[in-house]
Amino acid sequence: MVGGGPAPGINSVIGSATIEAINSGLAVTGIYDGFRWISSPDFAPEKHATELTISDVARIHFAGGSILRTSRTSLLNTDKLKASPVVMPDVDRIQRVITNLRNLNVNYLITIGGDDTALSARFVSERSEGAVRVVHVPKTIDNDLPLPGDINTFGFSSARYWGTLIVKNLMTDSLTTGRWYLITAMGRNAGFLALGIAKSSGATLCLIPEEFSEKTSLARIVDVIEGSMLKRRMMGRPDGVAIVAEGLAYRLGDRAELERIMGREVPVDAHGHPRLSEVPLGDMLKRELEVRAAARNEKITLVTHELGYELRSADPTPADIAYCRDLGYGAIRMLLDSRNVVPHGAMVTLVGGNLVPMDFQTMVDPATNRTRIRMVNTQSLSYRVSRAYQIRLELSDLENAETLEKLATLAKLTPEQFRERYRQAATRLVDLQAQPPPPS
């Protein structure tokens, strides 16, 4: 079964797992729409499940989307979710899942999804006490599951590829028309996708949640973008492309704070997360930038673009197809091979090309009982390289009298006013050569 948002490569996992399972003497059942029906008293096997054969899946690995569809149905106790940050399972619904699976003669369950689907899979595994063996395949274009060795989740590479092509076209349009694009990229908590697309495309600027403290302000984010725009103009370019991760909205505060800023209710999804699709971060940034430009009697052209939905069901790249074949095959081997037995369920991961089960228990965030997520390491070489090729205000710009004078003139401020206004937005560019060499 598949849960959460689509990601390129789902069908490749389904296909490879189905083929290896049948070749190992098993029958395979596909469950439609994730946990939606299997956890419902309305579950009807003839409508909500289907037998999968090799001929059904032999060529699906090239296609995006999911032949089993997907849903965001969770197995959380939503009543308790409102009262505590610690999530609890909905025992009745979980038992219904187990009962329905057993009625289908299912002994093994493969879930394909992100952190929330992994959480529901863990609940099923724990509640079944071995009656249903569970393996989770990590899928998300956000790339925020804690895989060992910084290995990517499947779907991320393909989403980055297609996103880069789109941004490439927008960069050409930006150059041609002399305008700025503000692109919001998917990434609920982590900035991997935004940063990966920006780095691959050579975007002017990229902002991710990991660069800010636990709470920041819209004005602080706008300061960084505006500083980049001013520096770009100083260099003779009125155009540019800024990419921001949608998860920056969470840095503005909790749900109540987001509702205060927006002046309306922000709904939550089935897992209790504020729906970022309801928070128009790009439009909010655009309005503030336009207000500031108008105060300088300056006209700027800003175009917002949300990047994400067109990436999720795109065809996977060959790299993701091959990776997903490994994951699907590995999931079956984890379920059947005694050396890979994980009593309470596990996530399939590959390290050095070899299968390494990751016990569900090692993935738990003790503060919330949710699945741990990983964030971009802003001390890593990969981040520093991306940062080095962006155009941003640096502390050195504020320390160079000639540069500061030019920037202040563009902003219609005195040099002292400019330095005071943008000091917090300016950062020191990391000197890569100054980094200590890796241990031998």
Descriptive account of the structure:
There is one protein chain. This protein has 440 residues and is α/β, with parallel strands linked by helices. The chain has 3 domains: 10-155 and 316-363, Rossmann fold; 160-312, Phosphofructokinase domain (Rossmann fold), CATH 3.40.50.460; 393-430, no CATH class. It is built from 18 helices and 10 strands. The protein has helices spanning 10-23, 35-38, 45-48, 54-57, 78-81, 91-103, 115-128, 156-177, 192-201, 218-234, 255-262, 281-295, 309-312, 318-336, 381-388, 395-399, 401-411, 415-422, and strands at 28-31, 49-52, 108-113, 133-138, 180-185, 205-207, 240-245, 302-307, 346-351, 354-359. α10 (218-234) crosses α17 (401-411). The radius of gyration is 24 Å and the shape is elongated.
Largest sheet: 4 strands, mixed
- Separation of termini? 45 Å
**Averaged pLDDT:** 92
Q: What class would the helix/strand composition place it in?
A: alpha/beta
Question: In the CATH scheme, what's the topology name of the largest domain?
Answer: Rossmann fold
Strand element count: 10
Uncertain segments are 431-435
Number of helices: 18
CATH class of the largest domain: Alpha Beta
Q: Helix coverage percent of residues?
A: 40-55%
The H-and-E topology, N to C, reads as HEHHEHHHEHEHEHEHEHHEHHEEHHHH
Reading side by side through the largest sheet, how are the strands ordered?
3-4-9-10
Percentage of residues in DSSP E strands? 5-15%
- In CATH, the architecture of the largest domain is 3-Layer(aba) Sandwich
